[in-house]
Amino acid sequence: MEGSDIWEELKMKYTAFAAVSAVALSVAGMAQAEPQAEVLHWWTSGGEAKSVAVLQEEFAENGGTWTDMPVAGGGGDAAMTALRARVLAGNAPTAVQLKGPAIQEWYEEGVLADISSVAEAQGWADVLPASIANHMKCEGTWCAAPVNVHRVDWIWANAEVLEANGIEMPTTWEEFNAAAETLQAAGITPLAHGGQAWQDATVFETVVLGLGGPEFFQSALVDLDTEALTSDTMKAVFDQMRTLRGYVDDNFSGRDWNLATAMVMNGEAAFQIMGDWAKGEFLAAGKVPGEDFLCASTPGDGFLYNVDSFAMFEVDGDDKRAGQELLAELIVGQNFQKVFNLNKGSIPARTDVSLDEFDSCAVTSSEDMAASSESGSLLPSYAHGMALRGAQAGAITDVVTAHFNSDMSSDEAVQMLADAVANSM
Ligand code: BGC
């Protein structure tokens, strides 16, 4: 062997040794490091706070120190603004409530940590449905941990108010409108609504699904097909939005979603169209499904899913990395998935958690999700960031809100919708 070859060989051995020692050192360091996590989330309502407390407690029981960074504002718009500011300042939080394509958008910025080691050790691929697992992956690595499955297309109702007015849960939009007219004549606000863009979008997407059907939803709000966006069906959707606008009270502007839920709880309003985090509010207030309040999917076929998840951001420090690993492990743990979702109103993301202790709305959700998955009508919620990238979703929501808060015609709305989507590409 020539002198230079020996030198090369030695260098390789030394480099390999150094790499092994570095890993060993870092593992040893991590083992000693006390897990730390600063967690950015938007769970600030009564039901949400009770739910996130479950994670905080489990984290503390396992030696972790949790720094809470709650950002009020349903739907997470304010939280995402806060996140952007922190990342731009070079000071990302350790763990962030993040979901849908936003996960991959942040991954492309090169700021997400890889949590594959936890996912592989815990066998996430075996316990999560493929549709959910796909949202948690970035170019083959695991980059987020799923918490639950929220269903968006729900109507919540005050049982007593419906009974007193001889009204059944509506199964078509005509029935909904007829019930609303009866209620309005009786002096009850038919629809509890908070006039915030994301809440308008939530109602809008349930109407798109209900009047257009699953295939139309896919073409319009997932594939952004121009023909679907400007179709007569979409005009009918905006007509129904205009009708719904007539069923909300005068003070709806800017109202938080949980205050709208409270209006249904106290009988001031009859219905709310909202995802099943609303059930978390009813439950936190001690209300019983089937007795105090009723749940039914919004009229039409299909299931709009909204999966909450946490992504870990690249941070320095063994304590923070240990915190990220512990969080990821707890989040997908069987116990957390049960207890958290019993409070949150959603169902577990894992398929192997028993629903024995869950209420009838959760059981319906799980059965409908399985049936929709079979029939191809399991669809990602656009309003909750599961279907589209931020720019496209934002463009649609701007039009939906502008229409809801003005006297814009349905013809104008569809044209504006197609233009906004085209400009956002
Ligand atoms: C989230 C829910 C949350 C709701 C209201 C949704 O986008 O997925 O977890 O409860 O917004 O803030």
UniProtKB/TrEMBL annotation:
GO CC list: periplasmic space
Pfam families: SBP_bac_1
Cellular compartment(s): Periplasm
Signal recorded as keyword: yes
InterPro entries linked: Bact_solute-bd_prot1, SBP
Signal peptide feature range: 1-33
Source superkingdom: Bacteria
Keywords, ordered alphabetically: Signal, Sugar transport, Transport
Coiled coil regions, renumbered to chain: none
Biological function: Part of a binding-protein-dependent transport system for a sugar.
Family, as annotated: Belongs to the bacterial solute-binding protein 1 family.
Protein name: Probable sugar-binding periplasmic protein
